[in-house]
Amino acid sequence: MPNRLGYCGPDENDVLLDACLNNKPSDELINALEGFQAAYPYLRFIAQSQGMQRPFDYRAVEAYWIGNDVLQRIAPNEFYDHLKQRFEKKFPKEHVKKLFDAKQFAAFPHHALHVFNAFSSMSSSPEALINPTGQPDEKVARLMDKCRISWGRVVGLENGPLHVEYEPVLRRDGKLLLGDPVMTNVVAEVQSRSFVSDVKLDDWVSFHWGFACSTLTPLQVANLRKYTLADMAIANKVPPPQ
């Protein structure tokens, strides 16, 4: 969805949509995916650090977007070196170093870490439109909430979009937190096609920029919540919940 909205990656949305729906990888697809300047280097790093042959190995992809045990096997010093090399021209050295200074924190190559900790310095829209230190908390939280991978329980299927109960990202006095469960509508179809065509009431789904990405297993829900809270704790500079 962020690619469709023009926020990231090359102008190849039909290639991405067709490949995902038909489960047919191709050279054209690989070229398109390698054009995602934020996500692809993380995937490549995860795969290489674990001896995987391909950056798009499912284990690496799940680790980055949802979270899994692969993240626990990545050496912090290797991840630090990766971030320093990638971002030293965009951030002061201290910015990256602070992610690793507090020993009780664990920084993982997880999508929400990028969203919560580098949001204001991204080079492409919509992130470049805001500055968390100078914009109202509500606006910052709303954009972070759209950009991270959310999870929610399906409570209604009628009239088009999925009706989902989820915990939104809030920002109060500069600190991030998950709010009390609220209802939201999640788009389930693009061009009359869906990634979650078999979704049922009480299923858990992931969604990104308001679009349903996949149904989730209980373990995936637990991992997505666990790593999102860990990333949030680093942004807040407080220990994550145990």
Structure description:
By secondary structure, this protein is an alpha+beta fold. It has two domains: 13-128, no CATH class; 133-236, SH3 type barrels. Helix content is 39%, strand content 15%. The chain has nine helices and seven strands. Strands 5-2-1-6-7 form a five-stranded antiparallel beta sheet. A two-stranded antiparallel ribbon has the order 3-4. The radius of gyration is 18 Å and the shape is globular. Mean pLDDT is 85; it is low at 120-134.
SSE map:
Elements: H1 13-22, H2 27-33, H3 39-49, H4 58-65, H5 76-87, H6 93-101, H7 111-118, H8 137-147, E1 150-156, E2 162-166, E3 169-172, E4 175-178, E5 182-186, E6 204-208, E7 211-216, H9 218-236
Antiparallel strand pairs: 1-2, 1-6, 2-5, 3-4, 6-7
Strand percentage: 5-15%
Uncertain residue ranges:
120-134
Write down the secondary-structure element order.
HHHHHHHHEEEEEEEH
SSE-based structural type: alpha+beta
Radius of gyration: 18 Å
Give a brief outline of the structure:
The protein contains nine helices and seven strands, in the order ααααααααβββββββα.
How would you describe this structure in keywords?
39% helix, alpha+beta, two-stranded antiparallel sheet, SH3 type barrels, 9 helices, 242 residues, single chain, globular
